[in-house]
Amino acid sequence: MTQAPLKGIRILDLTNVLAGPFCCHQLAHMGADVIKVETPGTGDLARQLGADPARNADLMGVSFLAQNPGKRSITLNLKSASGKRILKELVQKADALVENFRPGVMARLNLDYETLRKENPRLVYCAISGFRSGWPAGETACL
């Protein structure tokens, strides 16, 4: 039996809808321990996307179900001091963080790469964006 290539790697998944969740889903397939961090109450926007209105109403839309198997999950209010503290504690034990917020959101939350690398200098920080944010539109930057 072959060992999963990312076994022992922990990824924090702060993504929504498609590109980010798909990226982290592939990392989970390769054996990474992926922890999905969602907003309390609503979670990933994909929880409400799919052809079945009942599933969407239960926050289990097919789009969410397709992109998130194999992940663990936690809800954190990243606007609160306690949510930020808990995320920073998770960062200390993580290998990578993937986020796909609009450019500037993580900086406004004081959870950008410069801040989080103080918690974990070896952290790989991956920002996925379809909007202009200092690199060509539609590209991904991993720091």
List the helices and strands and how they pair.
Blueprint: E1 10-14, H1 19-29, E2 33-38, H2 53-57, H3 62-67, E3 71-75, H4 81-92, E4 96-99, H5 105-108, H6 113-119, E5 124-128, E6 140-142
Parallel strand pairs: 1-2, 1-4, 2-3, 4-5
Antiparallel strand pairs: 5-6
What is this entry, summarized?
With 143 residues, the protein is α/β, with parallel strands linked by helices. Helices cover 31% and strands 20% of the residues.
CATH topology: Rossmann fold
Integer tally of domains: 1
Order of helices and strands: EHEHHEHEHHEE
CATH class: Alpha Beta
The CATH architecture assignment turns out to be 3-Layer(aba) Sandwich
Protein described:
It is a single chain. The protein has helices spanning 19-29, 53-57, 62-67, 81-92, 105-108, 113-119, and strands spanning 10-14, 33-38, 71-75, 96-99, 124-128, 140-142. With 143 residues, it is α/β, with parallel strands linked by helices. The protein has a single domain, classed as Rossmann fold. A six-stranded mixed β-sheet has the order 3-2-1-4-5-6, covered by helices on one side. The longest helix has 12 residues, at 81-92. The mean pLDDT is 90.
List the main descriptive attributes of the protein structure presented here:
single chain, 143 residues, alpha/beta, Rossmann fold, six-stranded mixed beta sheet, 6 helices, 6 strands, 31% helix
